[in-house]
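Thread: Newbie trying to understand structure tokens

Hi all, I'm a second-year student working on a class project, and my supervisor (Dr. K.) asked me to get a predicted structure for one chain before our next meeting. I've only ever worked with sequences, so writing a 3D structure as a token string is new to me. If someone could post the tokens and maybe explain what I'm looking at, I'd be very grateful. Here's the chain:
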Amino acid sequence: MIRKAAFVVLATLAVAPGCTTYTARMTDTGVFYYDGAYDMAMGELNELVLKASEEDIYLYLLERGKVRLAAGMYDSAIVDLQAAERRFDEIEGTTSVGDAFSSTLVSDASTEYIPEAHERILLNTYLLLSYLGADDREGAYVERNRVIRRLSEYLGTVTSDDLAALDVPFARYVAAVMYENEGKLDDARIEYSKVEEFYPEAVPWAANSHLTEIVVLAEMGRAPIKYSREIRGYFQKINGTTHGYFTLPGGGEQMVVPLTSGLISGDVKLGKVFNFTFPEYVRVPRGAVYARPVVDGMEAGSAVMLDDFEETAMEAFNRDLMSILLRSAVRTYLQLVIQDELDEEVGAIAGAVAKFFSAVETADTRSWQTLPSEMAVFRMEVEPGKHEIMMRYYDAAGRLIDESGVLEIWVEEGKKKIAWMPGPP
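---
Reply by user tm_fold:
Sure, no problem. This is what the structure looks like when written as tokens:
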């Protein structure tokens, strides 16, 4: 039975993506994007989209949609982001592809990408910004409503202790500005009040529908990136319950996790130490620590923190840490058992199976990698008409280290104009 199952899994793996990790494939795109070379970044992503497997293509479209938004290609950004949104809607609520046995044995990277809940909210928020950039207000209103609905659904499953790390104030703020422009001040106050719980300096003194304002949303830094790491562990039975013993990268105390799944039965290879791959979230060092907008040639003040995407991503990952760890460890353990069975039944083929498993097994390093580390906001009253905005970025010592390009905007009288500025790493 085990041999038959093993060959079924091998057939599945034979059509799985290669062993190169998503992070490795996105390296050049990230370099170009965060250097402001959007044409080069799109060139890299066009190649990745053309070659993408069914498991990864919608994540690549998510990445390309955001790059196109940064390049001012609003209609093209909408096409990519909408395609990703439709597919994620179709698979929402699923956790794996295939039957339970094969999905446990096959690497998470070989299944279709399912975004984190906060990534879904950010997708709709960036799609909203794309509609605003394209002057499609009706499309923006639809996305605003989706943002509010997703926030309600997502945060309804979050404990009060986790709320500070997992809320998405950036999405709430954009929705609030839109409510102001529509004259829906009560709705705007609700969203601003929720932002104020975490970032009081970011909210205006009062929601209004009469001031002519620019609202600058400035991205800062780069979101954490997942890398494939090899760690050691073993399973052992204590009082009839199987436990996993693992040492995570960086050392520290050994992690002990009870295994409730029935996938491991008997005592085969219990206590035997094995290596397996595991995704590690790594924070990306930053050069710029604060930004100052330049409006019509004059520095106008400092942008303040609106949202910490880095902490949200890390917290969401840590919530799933045990599940990811156990899936990776159980998969490797079952592969070892299968190899032993094959060794007994078919001899030399076991060595080939072992090499095949080793070749394809890499940790799932997929995540939305063109997201920033944080979002800052700056708001000021201006005269109606055309304005030019750019950002200057400073390090911890107050030295100017980078500048953005100039964005021209038109502000209607009595309205608020959002100016989104992609930033440096």
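A couple of things are worth pointing out once you decode it. Residues 321-346 form the longest helix (26 residues). The two ends are 52 Å apart (CA to CA). Feel free to ask follow-ups in this thread.
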